[in-house]
Amino acid sequence: MPVAVSLAVLVCLFSTPGAAMAWEGYKEGCLWENVNSPTDLPAEAESEKEKCDRDLQVLTSLGKGAYGSADLVLNKTGIAKHRDKETGVVSHLPPGGKYVLKKFEEKRVWDYFDKKESEPTRTEPCMQQYVFENIGMAPQVFASWKCGEPAMGFLLMQRMGRRLMDLSELLNAETLVDPASGKEIKREDVTREVTKAFLGGLEALYSLGCMHQDLHDENIMFDLDGRLRFVDFGLAHCEKPGTKSETGMKKYITYESMSLVRLKELDAEEVEAQKNHDFGTFKILNTWKSPLSFWNAEISSKGNVKLLDWLRGKELGVEGS
């Protein structure tokens, strides 16, 4: 299904007419700046690229997509910030941390409702920060800004571990073992736990009034402790919480799940069961809030390599970044 048609279907399932176009509460407290003004740029920067990268050191490329690119970067100057949601206090984090820096072109930010957003580059980072601060289902945002000509958006965020797709590929080739009992951990048990976390996370996201709209297996990841998380909010939008019907949200969960069921990355029985449960049934299980239990396993063919180490980048005895 073409993207435009697909998103139109999802919006119809999920939205109250007019509500999505009016609410911008997700922008409150957003860590976004426009640094295009020469007075805001470091005088020692020799080029526009250096000015816009704000002295972040690129360590490695994490990939490029249709709408942008991502790099693993080192924060050398303390640009990363943390906002306390309860007090609104913003504090700078010390230099030295590693983060993901996403870059995207302002002109390619899609305007779903023809809102003519005055600053398109702030929409994605503000939504992602809003989701993180309220339910934790997105990577934390540490800074975001607009810079350059033509304008680019920059989003400095929390590092993740592996993708759901990576886990699926590993399970196709490897066997997981419980180190305490020595027994094999069945793939269907792993898939069932992932599915419960996925469905609970979606219920939490929709309860917040947000649609992701691009949940394929590369945009579902695990953080470095093993919690399931949604990434890439470039096609997302948020509406005022409480304006959605539970019927519409349940239909959207089914819609978002089916392609992953066909790839055998979600459990078909659990997804079918959610149709008959009250909305919120999976959310209250809290599986989506915690590291999933199977990350304590070991990969049998790789000696003492723990699955959690693999999640964090270690594979075949080689330590990742």
Structural key phrases:
single chain, 321 residues, alpha+beta, Phosphorylase Kinase, domain 1, Transferase(Phosphotransferase), domain 1, six-stranded mixed beta sheet, three-stranded antiparallel beta sheet, 15 strands, 30% helix, 20% strand, disordered N terminus, disordered C terminus, ATP binding
Outline the structure in words.
The protein is an alpha+beta fold. The protein has 2 domains: 31-157, Phosphorylase Kinase, domain 1 (2-Layer Sandwich); 164-311, Transferase(Phosphotransferase), domain 1, CATH 1.10.510. Helices cover 30% and strands 20% of the residues. The chain contains 9 helices and 15 strands. The protein has helices at residues 3-14, 19-22, 48-53, 123-135, 164-173, 187-207, 246-262, 268-274, 307-311; strands at 32-34, 56-64, 68-75, 81-83, 90-92, 98-105, 141-147, 152-157, 176-177, 184-185, 210-211, 220-222, 228-230, 237-238, 298-299. The protein has a 6-stranded mixed sheet with strand order 1-7-8-6-3-2. A 3-stranded antiparallel sheet has the order 10-9-15. A two-stranded antiparallel sheet has the order 4-5. The longest helix is centred in the middle third of the chain and has 21 residues, at 187-207. The chain is globular. The protein starts with a helix and ends in a 10-residue tail after the last helix. InterPro entries: Kinase-like_dom_sf, Prot_kinase_dom. This is Protein kinase domain-containing protein. One of its GO terms (molecular function) is protein kinase activity.
